[in-house]
Amino acid sequence: MSAGIVNKVASSVLKTIDLESYYTPGERITLDIKDQLFHGQILREKDFREFLKTNDWSAYQGKHIAIGCSVDAVVPTWAYMLLASVLAPVASTLIFGTLEELEIFLFRKKIEQVNWSSYQDAKVVIKGCSKVEVPVAIYVEVTQKLSAIASSVMYGEPCSTVPILKNKAPK
Hints:
The longest helix has 13 residues, at 99-111. This protein is α/β, with parallel strands linked by helices. It is built from four helices and seven strands. The two termini are 43 Å apart. It has two domains: 15-24 and 105-166, no CATH class; 28-91, no CATH class. α1 (45-54) links the parallel β2 and β3. α1 (45-54) packs parallel to α2 (77-87). The chain is elongated, with a radius of gyration of 23 Å. The chain has helices at 45-54, 77-87, 99-111, 136-147; strands at residues 15-17, 28-32, 64-68, 93-96, 123-127, 152-157, 160-166. A four-stranded mixed beta sheet has the order 1-5-6-7, with helices on one face. A three-stranded parallel beta sheet has the order 2-3-4, sandwiched between helices.
């Protein structure tokens, strides 16, 4: 009499978004300009240009790099521009900011390529557990993109979700 075990999750109409799949592999590093400051306070152009000329930039080959200064110091804009000019040919990604901002940038580049119209009127689950840390900012951006088009958005796993939003049926 029994029809067997039915996997309701597998046969569900839910569309799952696994944000982990938008992770960009590669080493992430910070290049802190503080080490080039005179007395830890100001940047001297002559010394900085010498550093740029003599440093082995091949060590940054193919890496995702966030450049910045972790101390409160006088660093002119041109210094970051000069640094970018030597790193751009070797770095895979280069931003001004923190490692967290770099991670958001990398995820954002991937989610900008998604065809969001494929989620039109769909019931969507944004997967919660992943092996890599997905920045909260990315969850917020994806929710914003889905809020105008999906019939509902949930967070978690298809078998156990937290409702985030439910859009009213079209008139």
